[in-house]
Structures are given as C-alpha cells and as structure tokens.
Design a protein that fits this description.
- The chain has one domain: TIM Barrel (Alpha-Beta Barrel), CATH 3.20.20.80.
- By secondary structure, the chain is of the alpha/beta class.
- The longest helix has 28 residues.
- Helix 10 links the parallel strand 5 and strand 6.
- The protein is about 45% helix and about 15% strand.
- The protein is globular.
- Bound molecules: (3S,4R)-3-hydroxy-2-oxopiperidin-4-yl beta-D-xylopyranoside (XIL).
- (3S,4R)-3-hydroxy-2-oxopiperidin-4-yl beta-D-xylopyranoside binds next to loops.
Length: about 375
C-alpha cells in the first residue's frame, strides 16, 4: 500500500513536471504572429529569393513568424514597368503567389514614387518633362494595369511614397514639377477606380519631424475633404539609435490617427551603425563612400550595443502595442539581419544589425521579451 502510494506520487510529480515543461516549451515556441496577431497584422518585406523559394531558411522564418508580406522591390516601377509599353510581372506574380500559398495578407509597394522610378516615366525621348496631360495618362495606365491585375488579392497599396520633405514642403519630384500637388489625389483616385475594395495608403519616412507631421495631417484631411479614399498613413519606421524619440513618434502616430485613418508601421528597422550625414531619414538617393571606421562591427555586435538596441526597439514595440486600437499593421523591412537594406545603405558593404532576427534567423532578446510580456498581459486579463 505504502509502496503504491509512493509510486503514485512519483508518477503525479513527473506528470506535473512534464505538463509544466511542455507549457514552458509552448510559451517559448510562441511566435510573433501568435502573440501579436490579434492586435495588428505582423508583416515583413520579402525579397525575390524568398518569394521564389531559393532562400529556404528565410522562407521558413517568414512562414513561422509573420502573417503579412510586402514587396521589397518587385513592384517598384523600374522593375514592374521598365519600358512604356512593357510591363514585367514575373517577380510581382511570384510575390503574390507566395502570399496566397501561405495564406498571408498581401500589401503592394509602391505605385507612385520618385525613387526606383522607370527612367521613361516622366520624360519624352529627349529627356524633357512630358506634358501634364501625358503624365496623367501614364500614371493612370501604370496604376490601373497593376492594381487591376491583383484585384482581390492585394489587400492594400502604398499609393504614393515619400511626397513630403522633413520641413513639410512638397518634395520636388518630377511628378510634383509637372502636376503640382494634384498628382497625389489623382494617384489615389486611379487606384480606387481599379480596385474599389483595396485599401489605399500614404507612406513616408521620418514622420516624427513636426513639419512633416503637420503636412501629412493636412494632406490626409485634404484628400478626405475631396472625397478621396485613404485608409491609412504608413510610418516607415527606419529608426536610428537616436532618432526619433518614442515620444515624438507617438505624437505623429496620434496626429495621423486623429484624422480618422488608421496607422501602419510599414518599414520597421533600426540601424546601429554610425550615420554619415547631418540629415537623417531614408532617402535612398543619399549614398556615401565606404570607410573602415564607418563599419565598426564587422564580426559581432558588442553586448553593450546589442543591449541598447534591444531596449530601444522594445520601447517602440511597446508603443505599437499600446496603440493597437489605431495601428492595423506593423511590418519589418526584412526577415533577418542578413536581408536588411541597411547593410548597403547609405554606405555599401557594411554589417548592420537592424532587424528582429539575427543572421542565424534566431530571435533577438526583444522578440522573446515582447512575446512574453504580451502573453502575460493576456493571462492577467483573460
Ligand atoms: C529599399 C530596398 O530595401 C532596397 O533593396 C533597394 O535597393 C532600395 O529601396 N523606403 C522605401 C523602400 O519605401 O522601398 C526602400 O526599400 C527603403 C526606403
């Protein structure tokens, strides 16, 4: 009898141990999309090796952690519409097929942007600006051919990207030069005509600058007053270790939400590398020569820097969770550090550590801790 009860208690203790171990395992195995997916879409920008399946480790990470994808490059005009009378949908089709196959929310990036712009788009054969009428026609055909091809498959589009400078003035792009600010509502209108169900976004970087904040609020209000559909403002979120402060970022986030549209964090990353210029931001035309001292961590990231990065990234992620009532998507600009454009911009050939997963596709401490925090809060408020 006594022996039996000892056996029984050993059995129940070990069962309890097994149960609690498996609970711990389950918690540890919880992914970003499982933890945060009921708050907002958890997105990632993917490249063509991933959409095409050759980066198998990258694909595994993307499928495991994220429930939404955006095209890092393959839908930009220079790729998808390289000549006036030639669209090339090879990579864009592959990207959309990847999203459909994996049951992900697919986001299109980007319809009208001055960078990575097809050279023919705004000029004639002699390189002179085309007339406003012709540019409107070209924009309409470009936007409507692409949007209607993916009608019902792409949930939302970055319609216009980076139209406003840090001080709030309109960026002097060819689109602006030829059409004035009117090119923005036109682009939204063309996209809406092609897919009335699609969500439409205005997307930009350095949105924490007060000048830019006010100008974007004004732009959104103007579009809304004109009866133009706009669903969200995309705050790119290319952060550095000092800019912006979470408080300034939060001010912009709330200012955009106060216009009645949603907010999306669309291109999140945070560089740890020294910045070569006084001007911050994410203007892809800004490029600087490689110098050894500008690439201080070619082997590993020192613990102190890593810790500071994780702490600061945690502040931003917590801010997004706090405002999950107005934030409908948080997308990181690349799956793992290896994929980050920051390794090559604004200086080519550096080693940056800008994303949530390291080069071995392992989660950074901030990922594990944010998942834990969110799960604990859910447990405390079931
Ligand atoms: C970047 C891509 O990540 C790079 O691969 C490419 O060489 C340049 O563009 N803002 C945007 C994105 O809206 O499209 C940019 O993506 C990063 C800045």
């Amino acid at each position: 009898m006594k022996r039996n009860s000892i056996l029984l208690s050993i059995l129940s203790v070990s069962t309890a141990l097994i149960v609690s171990c498996s609970t711990v395992e389950k918690e540890e195995a919880t992914t970003l999309k499982e933890a945060l997916g009921d708050k907002f879409l958890v997105g990632v920008a993917i490249n063509s090796n991933q959409a095409g399946g050759t980066d198998t480790a990258g694909v595994a990470l993307i499928k495991q952690q994220f429930n939404s994808i955006v095209a890092e490059n393959c839908m930009k005009s220079e790729v998808i519409h390289p000549e006036e009378n030639r669209f090339d949908f090879t990579l864009a089709d592959q990207f959309v097929a990847f999203g459909k196959k994996n049951d992900m929310t697919i986001i299109g990036h980007t319809l009208i942007w001055h960078s990575q712009l097809s050279p023919w788009f705004c000029v004639d054969e002699k390189g002179k600006n085309v007339s406003p009428e012709l540019l409107k026609e070209r924009m309409k055909r470009h936007i409507q051919t692409i949007v209607s091809r993916y009608k019902g498959e792409i949930k939302g589009w970055d319609v216009v990207n980076e139209a406003i400078e840090d001080d709030g003035s309109f960026r002097q792009t060819k689109f602006y030069e030829i059409l004035g600010e009117e090119y923005i509502p036109l682009a939204f209108q063309y996209a809406h005509e092609a897919d009335p169900e699609a969500e439409l976004y205005y997307n930009d970087f350095s949105m924490a600058h007060p000048g830019k904040r006010d100008a974007v609020v004004k732009l959104v209000n103007k579009l809304k007053n004109q009866g133009i559909r706009i669903d969200a403002v995309g705050m790119q979120g290319h952060l550095t270790m000092s800019f912006p402060t979470p408080a300034e970022f939060e001010k912009s986030l709330l200012a955009f939400a106060s216009t009645g549209v949603n907010v999306m964090i669309t291109e999140l990353d945070m560089t740890v590398l020294p910045w070569p210029s006084k001007k911050l931001g994410a203007d892809i035309s800004a490029n600087f020569a490689y110098e050894k001292e500008m690439n201080p961590y070619p082997e590993v990231l020192p613990d102190s820097v890593s810790q500071a990065w994780n702490e600061r990234m945690g502040e931003f992620l917590r801010l997004f969770v706090k405002h999950a009532n107005v934030i409908t998507r948080v997308t990181v600009w690349g799956a793992s550090d290896e994929d980050s454009w920051r390794n090559n911009w604004p200086i080519k050939g550096r080693k940056d550590y800008a994303l949530l997963f390291d080069r071995n596709h392992q989660p950074k401490p901030v990922v594990t801790s944010i998942i834990k925090e969110v799960l604990n809060t859910k447990k405390a408020n079931p």
